[in-house]
Specification:
heterotrimer; A: 161 residues; alpha/beta; five-stranded mixed β-sheet; 3 helices; 7 strands; B: 158 residues; Rossmann fold
């Protein structure tokens, strides 16, 4: 299948959900409306595309935009040997979207990491807690307004000699 | 404390016995652990200095090697492990991250193990070569040799 | 705080904590178990004990400076992380790396991969009480690290692979030292095969333990030797070839059952294939002009001499900069003054070199990729190591994200050990080769 066809076929199948498609540096990217993720992903998991592997799930923080959080998904098809990037933008007050845990098992930890670092919530996630930071940590470290050096020690620290 | 022949000889013998029979507990977290593995193995043997037996339990060891970065989540665990060790105990901070936080000056890393527990020897490097770790061990052995112990058991202040 | 397992547990079962200070040399992972005698009913894995804030730190460092942080991710094979990061930047900048530098990168990556597998199997065997295998593997790893140290200057965290090429050329005597490392590794592999392959104790601890089906492995996003042990052939070096891997001959070993023993055998076979690649690199690497170990001038004298020199007379600098002399520079670094610092002879003795050196390091200048985002992945010791970089046109990355293969491997541990004995955790955990520097970033 030539490079352009997958993006065209997604646009034809979901004309109202796709915001734009592009291929910067040769990597196919699809930008979707929020709420469209599950349907598009289920469409892509079937034949002939078979995007069966979720490589990565992350978030980028653009505080100056209205839609602050941009979720980025990388999925991979072993049959076609192709990668695809899916992007979604979320506003800060409604930073939640569908969880992919019914489809992929590693989405569990990846979504916990996104919640820990950015505060994005996932509906339908069985156990949404922090992954890296401890439970009492206040704030979300990778947001742009969290200062780099603001430490929250768990035990009182001594003065080093 | 009386400084006479018996007391100095007692210190001397006790220091000699302690320094050549160190049981260490490697508290390994990060990259320096690889250099610790090299130090403990055949090329740069740590056993020839008497400190070869790795006791995988803090209660059975008297040297705590803090190898690698200590994050804020790990700091209470380090304190618990240090408190579980019995006297006499020494601590060696190996690697730049354990000494001072290393290249990580951010929200997640304790800037030096001495903010959590008292440290005797600091071994810098990122990661330190095995020869430097052994040099740190030798300096620790000198320090143990020179420690003064009060042999008057009843009157000892704790 | 009560963990999930404490809330879910049966009040009559035993809760055991395999705590963050793990003696099995894997660093700091906490596994909480709910036991019925020795059998595991439920488990919970807690990570984050080595979270060092890599991604947040990288947003505050220039592209050149954050190379050192990438070394310390997968710290048993540090050069492969370097390669991944540098190639991501080169993709954004569309830089062409000279061929000799590409061969050197492949050579160093494969040596790192061999040392990664050696360390993994050493730790796994040591935890199954095969201490001899640990000592033998670390001995072989020392010879490999000798080669890496002679070329790069450091044994482990090298920061050797730079944007545009490598930092220094290989030493003139590198074939002998590489061949010695290859020979010693082959001897050790033969010994370890003899000790562990048909060993009844090792087989009973690893055969049919930690079984993973191919469908589950894909659902978990496994990559690397663990995925190949289930029978699925996905290797980034063959699927999306980078550097000169498409010109080299090597096979991809596959397993059948996806248990611990298959993961062990896949790693042993991969080491053999990596040794093949190393030998092919030695044969095919393009020749560079003969390097003379410089007995030249210190930089201060060189500056003085350059003011007095006659036109056309060459100035050689001191041995501290060996490997990066001007006559070998074009073989090891790309030819683009916007992104590459000039060779030191030019920086110290000519005004153009000084200006381009200064402009590279000046705040706000230097490497400024175009706006956009890019994802690139390489085959690391554990799987697909991917870097996702979002650039806003300035000299610092806006967002840098690492696709850590170990996160997906460890996410499946709770399912793999359910219903098994406590002693089965150790070889399962060891064969997955969890490196916390990568997982926790």
């Amino acid at each position: 299948m030539e490079k352009k066809k997958i993006l065209d076929e997604i646009e034809q199948a979901f004309p109202e959900k796709v915001l734009e498609t592009s291929a910067p540096f040769g990597e196919e990217t699809v930008e979707l409306r929020p709420g469209a993720l599950l349907k598009v992903v289920e469409f892509l998991r079937k034949k002939p595309y078979e995007f069966t592997m979720l490589l990565d799930l992350t978030c980028v923080d653009f505080p100056e935009r209205d839609e602050r959080f941009e979720m980025v998904y990388h999925i991979y098809s072993l049959a076609l040997n192709r990668r695809l990037r899916i992007k979604l933008s979320l506003p800060e007050d409604k930073a939640s979207l569908d969880s992919l845990t019914p489809l992929w098992k590693n989405a569990n930890w990846l979504e916990r990491e996104a919640f820990d670092m950015f505060g994005v919530r996932f509906e339908g996630h069985p156990d949404l807690r922090r992954l890296f930071m401890n439970e009492d940590f206040k704030g979300h470290p990778l947001r742009k307004e969290y200062p780099l050096r603001k430490r929250q020690p768990l035990i009182p620290l001594r003065k080093s000699p | 404390m009386p400084e006479n022949f018996i007391a100095t000889k007692f210190n001397h013998i006790l220091g000699w016995a302690r320094k050549y029979s160190l049981f260490h507990y490697p508290y390994i977290t990060a990259c320096c652990g690889m250099e610790y593995m090299s130090t403990a193995c055949a090329h740069f043997d740590i056993d020839r200095f008497g400190a070869g037996w790795t006791r995988f339990s803090p209660r059975q060891s008297d040297l705590l090697l803090v190898v690698g970065t200590i994050s804020q989540k790990q700091a209470p665990i380090l304190k618990i492990v240090y408190d579980q060790m019995t006297e006499p105990k020494w601590v060696m901070a190996i690697g730049a991250c354990a000494v001072s936080g290393g290249i990580y000056d951010n929200y997640a890393v304790v800037q030096g193990v001495d903010q959590v527990i008292p440290v005797d020897i600091y071994v810098p490097g990122c990661p330190p070569r095995p020869e430097i770790i052994l040099d740190g061990l030798l300096k620790l052995q000198d320090k143990i040799q020179k420690q003064k112990h009060d042999w008057r058991w009843k009157k000892r202040k704790s | 705080m009560t963990a999930r397992i404490q809330k879910q547990a049966n009040p009559e079962s035993l809760l055991l904590n395999m705590g963050p200070s793990h003696p099995a040399m894997h660093g700091a992972v906490r596994i909480m178990l709910e036991l019925d005698g020795e059998r595991i009913l439920n488990s919970e894995v807690e990570v984050g004990y080595l979270h060092r804030g890599f991604e947040k730190t990288c947003e505050n460092r220039t592209y050149f400076n954050l190379l050192i942080y990438t070394d310390r991710l997968n710290y048993v094979s540090p050069l492969i992380n370097n390669v991944g990061y540098v190639m991501t930047i080169e993709k954004m900048l569309s830089l062409q790396v000279p061929e000799r530098a590409q061969y050197i990168r492949v050579l160093m990556s494969e040596l790192s991969r061999i040392s990664d597998h050696l360390t993994c199997l050493a730790a796994m065997a040591m935890e199954c009480a095969a201490f001899t295998v640990f000592l033998y593997n670390i001995k072989a790893r020392e010879f490999i690290w000798d080669v890496i140290e002679a070329t790069t200057g450091a044994r482990m965290t090298t920061s050797y692979i730079r944007i545009g090429g490598v930092r220094a050329d290989l030493r003139p005597d590198y074939p002998e030292s590489v061949q010695k490392a290859v020979l010693e590794t082959r001897k050790v592999l033969k010994d370890v095969h003899g000790l562990l392959d048909k060993n009844k104790i090792f087989l009973s601890r690893t055969r049919d333990i930690g079984l993973m089906t191919p469908e589950d492995a894909i659902a978990y996003g496994w990559t690397g030797p663990c995925l190949r042990s289930t029978g699925i052939c996905y290797d980034v070096r063959k699927a999306h070839p980078y550097l000169v891997y498409d010109r080299l001959n090597f096979d991809i070993p596959l397993g059948e059952r996806g248990d611990n023993y298959d993961r062990y055998m896949v790693r042993m076979e991969e080491m053999e294939q990596s040794l093949r690649i190393v030998e092919q690199c030695l044969a095919r690497i393009p020749k560079s002009p003969g390097r003379v170990m410089a007995d030249g001038l210190e930089p201060a004298e060189a500056i003085r001499a350059s003011r007095l020199k006659k036109p056309g007379q060459a100035i050689r600098l001191s041995p501290n900069l060996e490997g990066a002399e001007k006559d070998v520079y074009k073989n090891i670094m790309a030819d683009d003054p916007r992104f590459i610092i000039p060779p030191k002879e030019e920086a110290y003795t000519s005004i153009e070199g000084l200006i381009s050196h200064f402009k590279f390091f000046m705040k706000g200048h230097g490497i400024r990729p175009p706006k956009g985002e890019v994802y690139f992945s390489v085959e690391g010791g554990n799987g697909e190591v991917g870097y996702y970089i979002v650039s806003d046109g300035s000299d610092k990355p806006y967002r840098l994200h690492l696709r850590a293969p170990c996160l997906h491997l460890l996410a499946s541990l709770e399912d793999l050990i359910k219903g098994r004995l406590v002693a089965d955790i150790i070889p399962t955990f060891g064969s997955m080769n969890i490196i916390l520097g990568e997982l926790d970033r």
